[in-house]
Amino acid sequence: MRDIIIIGSGPAGFTAAIYAARAELKPLLIASSVEIGGELMNTTEVENFPGFPEGIMGPDLMAKLQAQAERFGTEVVYDDVVELELDGPVKRVKLGNGETHEAAALIYATGSAYRKLGLPEEEVLSGHGLSWCATCDGFFFRQKTIAVVGGGDSAMEEATFLTRFADKVYVIHRRDTLKASKIMQQRAFDNEKIEFIWNAEIAAIHGTTAVTGVTLRDTVTGDERGLDLDGLFVAIGNDPRTHLVHGKLELTPEGTIAVEGRTSKTSLPGVFAAGDVTDPHYRQAVTAAGSGTVAALDAEQYLAALPKAPEAEVAAAATSVAEAEAVEAVEAEFAVVN
Ligand SMILES: Cc1cc2nc3c(=O)[nH]c(=O)nc-3n(C[C@H](O)[C@H](O)[C@H](O)COP(=O)(O)OP(=O)(O)OC[C@H]3O[C@@H](n4cnc5c(N)ncnc54)[C@H](O)[C@@H]3O)c2cc1C
Questions:
Q1: pLDDT of 252-299, one tens digit each?
Q2: Ligand 1 center to residue 287 CA distance, Å?
Q3: Dihedral-angle region of residue 304 (phi above 0 means left; psi in -120 to 50 means alpha; beta otherwise)
Q4: Cβ–Cβ < 8 Å for 203, 216
Q5: Residue pLDDT, tens place only, 150-209
Q6: How far is CA 243 from CA 95, 121, 295, in A?
């Protein structure tokens, strides 16, 4: 049995692994079979991760985090966790290939998924004018014309925030009323850079190497028209990846894993959670990395407080008896020689 298993290969998982490995806990990190490196693999330039004044490409940053975790002895497995057994002192992690791994502590860092429009162009244009994160990418759209898709609080917040950079921000919403709270709506209505396009959905995104516009479809009449754009932000929701722990760990009303205060402690002893899967608000690479640190330190403390397994105690006792006998033998030999 291992000391610790980490699930997730985003900034939270790899940072937890760096700390756990440097504490000599020999972590096993399950990276997934498809999305190794997490959400930053879907983006280009990351300009707000501290330590990279020139910026760094998302995949390069993740490769560096992985190399740093492996340098200290993290073992990475490229598979998906399909089942978890979390109650009891031994945590069991079943993988897609049928193997089961056991550990005394587990860090759950599976991130969250931004909801997509479901258009084929999304894969190609992500990070090339198509974004899910205004805080991350707003800076790239100075004096541009962009659009935000969505009608909830986060769409209003993103649209209002983006007016700091862009000259014009369209809000595209498929109904004629918003789901957002009244105060957020009013803030957006009062902003002269924001224009609402009601009863409209995106039928296609244009552009081969960067977003150049969209085809809008009227949700009432079905009519289609083009709209030229330099960028498109999708703000239609975010789903924390918690399906493996439903009914096992306590969740918050927002659907993230509930943790105790500023710690990473979940509702089960020995199970810690980190990164976007615990975070309904900030969802940044550096906050995820920070919470990975917290989880590794919490897990380390938990492991240190565990009573030693009887066989470990016997082994430790045997070692000290053997050591004592060896010392006695050397002393005796030394006495004879002298
Ligand atoms: C397009 C885009 C651009 C962004 N740009 C920036 C930016 O510029 N700056 C910034 O700070 N933030 C940015 N973000 C946000 C940032 O990517 C996230 O906040 C951060 O990646 C969260 O880290 P995490 O480790 O919690 O989760 P993630 O990065 O989502 O990683 C979770 C990992 O868990 C794995 N996983 C999930 N389920 C399983 C399973 N069952 N078995 C095994 N593995 C599993 C996933 O495959 C993934 O590897 C961006 C996000 C997007 C989508």
A1: 999 999 999 999 999 999 999 999 999 999 999 999 999 999 999 999
A2: 11
A3: alpha
A4: yes
A5: 999 889 999 999 999 999 999 999 999 999 999 999 999 999 999 999 999 999 999 999
A6: 15, 27, 20
Q: What angle do CA 246, 250, 251 make, to 5 degrees?
A: 80
- Residue 299 near residue 108 (C-beta atoms within 8 A): no
Which stretches of the chain are DSSP H helices? 11-22, 58-71, 121-125, 134-137, 153-162, 182-189, 285-305, 310-337
- With cut-offs at 50, 70 and 90, classify the pLDDT of residue 311: low
Model pTM score:
0.85
State the Cα torsion 127-131-136-138 to the nearest 10°.
Answer: 110
* Residue 163 · residue 191 · CB < 8 Å: yes
Active-site hit among 60, 79, 87, 133:
133
CA dihedral sign, ordered 234, 240, 246, 250: negative
Q: How far apart are CA 112 and CA 8, in angstroms?
A: 11
In this structure, the residue with its CA closest to atom 51 of ligand 1 is: 39
* Ligand 1 pocket, Cβ-based, cut-off 6 angstroms: 7-13, 30, 32, 35, 37-40, 42-43, 46, 48-49, 80-81, 109-111, 114, 126-127, 131-133, 136, 241, 244, 275-276, 283-286, 288
- Each residue of 69-96: pLDDT tens digit? 999 999 999 999 999 999 999 999 999 9
How many Å from the N-terminal Cα to the C-terminal Cα in the chain? 48
* CA 112 to centroid of ligand 1, rounded, Å: 7
